[in-house]
Amino acid sequence: MNFFYRHRAALGAAALLLTVAFTLTVCFCALAGTAAEAHRLTVVLDAGHGGVDGGVVGVRTGTKESDINLKITFLLQERFEEAGFRVVLTRRTEAGLYGMATSGYKKRDMQKRAEIIQTSSPSLVISVHQNFFSLPSRRGAQVFFKESSESSRSLACDIQTALNAMPECVKRSDPLKGDYYILNCSDTPSVIVECGFLSNPEDEALLLQESYRRKLADAVTEGALGFLSSSANLRNFG
Ligand SMILES: [Zn+2]
Asked: Domain residues for 145?
């Protein structure tokens, strides 16, 4: 009788124990993962426009706002994920969210964004856009918030402060109230970040540089994390 036959009962019991231990470990890790996931804060990043709606265009190059918005949004996604957030993007391709570009597409596009925000239960919403103005001299990043939301104002102040501190900032701005659908569609602290003016050649040139877009994303993330780290906001959203 060889070793296996003499000890097969013991070997069987050991194998069973190992299987049970492995199963329990896998279950525990899955549960731990679920719990960790449940405690992560969510941020919704909204790249404005898309598809047939390219937004405004660069005065020199004709670059579409929608393309720049998406690039900056991806950079923000990297930073928020590195900071431990669950990130939900409303738009992750060049396409809009309206389905077919038939009558009412803009409304359908905005409703889809609102639906994503409302079902994601985020701690904050950042909508990324580029500005345009009739006076080409107008420059700089500008943050908008919903007037009736004190937390949105606070988030906007923190992000605007970080943007104003960038070396490329030629004129410090205050955040502005804005009556926009994306700000009004939920009670979540929400801002629109207009990163620069595509009607201004200097801003346009900066926005076309990957290195500048990275700096912008760094500043927006810094402002948003500053907002969340204040004790009052952690009480509300932690
Ligand atoms: Zn826009």
From this structure: 41-237
